[in-house]
Structure formats: structure tokens, C-alpha cells
Amino acid sequence: MQEIFVLAHVPTAPVNEGFLPAARALGLPVVVLTDCADAHRAHFASTGLPAYPDDVVPCDVFNPLAVIDAITRRGGGKPAAVFSNSDHLQTATAIAAAYFGLPGKDWRTTYAAKNKAEMRRRLAESGIDTMWHAVVCDATGLAALADVPMPCIVKPREGVASQQVSLARSHAELAEHCGAIWARHPGQALLLEEYLEGPLYTLETLGDGKEIRALGGFRVTLSPPPYFVELEAVWGTGLPASVEAEVLDTIRRFGIGFGACHTEYVLTPKGPRLIEINYRSIGDYREFLLSDTLQFPLFEQVLRLHLGEALPALEVPKRAAWIRYFTAQVEGTLRHAPAHSQHERDGVRLTYQPLRKVGDAIHLTNSNKDYLGVLRGSGPNTAGLAAAVELASSKLAWEIAQ
């Protein structure tokens, strides 16, 4: 039987609790290719997991040639699909899928989406959206820049999870923020770009290479600057349909059209402006919330696209969804933390997922890595769901010993 090859770096909940069970539901064997084989094998040594892969194969998954070689050496003929949900591995996955003549994303687009400087260049070159930006790798390069607009955003060129992202309000702060990053990671490529003022939204899409469809989006609440930690997201932007249509047209012109895509944008006085194009499913447990809210097997649907099936007509129900993240405020050792819980009443379903365990050392990063836990919920209306989220939140408490 043809196998689905899933490229993975470290073990993640979306793969282990979402896509692996989805592949099982489709009746297909799964092989995990990973550069962290021991970590994956340790995870799958646990009992009571929703699904297990048929094999875990060590592979330099960042190298598409190594991926092609690992699949070829299996000797099973043409794979059923080559897939990854990792930000870092979309390009290697796209190249390998193209080699085997399988449905997949265009590797040039995955590369441009992941490399934020290349995304800005491609948008400007196509006349879609022009924004001031520059790439610097050291203090000399930074000093050579002229007319840097203030305030400005500092972020790693290939960063994730809001790590090392900050707002510099002056040239002195800019030098300080860049210097702090280079002290830990000498020579790291940093993208500087103009700051976009306005509320943050997302657009979630699915495509089969011929048609791309918007599922909807979240309104996102961020921590106060200079950092940009996502604290809460509410499904249903409340924006005019024309705004989402404009964002959809923008990413289509960029080259997005296959599989899942998670796009972030700011609604400025001049209209929506792109922040990031993440050419994979939304993360931080919102993929599970989205699956609950949409009331169709989202993980399975994504895999079906990679298996070559056409995008079906998808009816998006009028349901509310809410997710809240609880972040550490101090460093130390986690002494007390709420356990996993699930509650359903009056059509409202709430799930609390702990992300750190008692005994963990907590180090503040001013990023999504500071999450202690996440509460997600869906229900028939926003008012009832909001009340349920507030009540559940009031019962959660953590103790961190400094």
C-alpha cells in the first residue's frame, strides 16, 4: 500500500494528535521522516496516544535531496503523499513532492513565504504591496542604513512564534534590540520593516491548486509593545466581506493556492496590509479549535488535498470560537499548574490544555514560548462563549517559585 510521508522536526501536537489520526481515518500507512528520530520514538513509546506512525525514519528533513533519497530507499514505489505542517520544512516538502509527481505547493512560493525579506521583495516586485524593509546581519550593516522609519519592527528573517520580534521606537532602541539578538546569535539575518498601526487579523484558507477558498479568520489580541505575544483570538473578524476578499486576492497573486495557509494582516486606515504568510495550517492549538468550530474533519481534509482530491464545497457553520493563552509573568520553577480539562454544556465546548508541567524551569522569552496553558472553546454564539471563557479562566491558577 502507498504510504504518506510526513516530514517533521520536533514532535508537535498538530501532527501527533491531528494529522496522524486523520491519516489513520483515511486508511493509509504513515512514515515520519525526521531529524529528531529519538524524540519522536520516545513520544510514540507512550500508551494511549490517538495514533502511531508505521515507521519513524531518521532523515535530514531540511535537505530535499535527503528526503527524496529516504523515500526512494523505502522501495515502496510512488508515495501516496509527501506532507509537512512545519514552517521550516515546507520548501523541502514541496521539492520532494514535485520530484515524485505528487500534488504539492510551489517551492518558490513556500520559500518566499518563509523568508520574510523575500516575501516583502516579491510583494513589491509584483506591485501588490510595497513596504520599507531591510536585512541586516551585523552592527556595521545596521549603521550603514539611512532613513530607517521609526518606529520599526525587528524580527528574524525566518522566525516563528513571535520569537525575538520587537518594536524599536528610536535608533538607539533599534541598535539595542539588534545587538541583544546578535549577542546570542552572531550574524543572524534580521528583517527591519516599517510598523503597521492597527488591529491584527488572520485569514485561513484551503486550496487544491485550482481553487482557493477562505474559511474565515480570527481577530487577535496582542501583548503591549515592544513585544507581540498573541494573548487571545476570536473567530469571526466582523469585517466587511470585501476586506477578506482583498486579502484572499493578495495571497492568490503572491502564489498561494494549495493546501492550508494561515495569513496575518493588519487593518490600517488604508486597508489590509500583510504581516506574514504562513504556508501551513494555523498553529498554537487554533487548528484544533478551528476543526471543532468548522465541524468537519479539517486535518483529514488537508491530507485529502495532498492526496490529489479536489476541494469540496465546504459549508462554514455560524459558530463562535475563542482561544485564550496564559503566559508566564515571572521566571522560576513551576510549582502548581491546572490539569487538562474538558467541559461541555449548553452547546459550549471548552478545553484547557496545559503546555508546561510542574517542575519545569520557566525562562521568559517575550514570545509564544512563554505560554503556560491554553483555553479554547466553541459554541453557538459569541456572548455565551465569552461568559464561559471568563468563568473558566477565573478558575485557573499557576504558582511559579522564583
Task: Summarize it.
With 402 residues, the protein is an alpha+beta fold.
Please describe what this structure looks like.
It comes from Cupriavidus taiwanensis. InterPro entries: ATP-dep_AA_Ligase, ATP-grasp, ATP-grasp_PylC-type. This is Putative siderophore biosynthesis protein. Keywords: ATP-binding, Ligase, Nucleotide-binding. GO terms for molecular function: ATP binding; ligase activity; metal ion binding. About 30% of the residues lie in helices and about 30% in strands. It has about 400 residues and is an alpha+beta fold. It has 3 domains: about 5-100, Rossmann fold; about 130-195, ATP-grasp fold, A domain (Dna Ligase, domain 1, 2-Layer Sandwich), CATH 3.30.1490; about 200-400, D-amino Acid Aminotransferase, Chain A, domain 1, CATH 3.30.470.20. Strands 9, 10, 11, 12, 13, 14, 15, 17, 18 and 20 form a 10-stranded antiparallel β-sheet that branches. Strands 3-2-1-4 form a 4-stranded parallel β-sheet, with helices on both faces. Strands 5-8-6-7 form a 4-stranded antiparallel β-sheet, with helices on both faces. β11 and β12 form a beta hairpin. α3 packs across α4, α4 packs antiparallel against α5 (about 105-115) and α5 crosses α6 (about 115-125). The model has no long low-confidence stretch (mean pLDDT about 95).
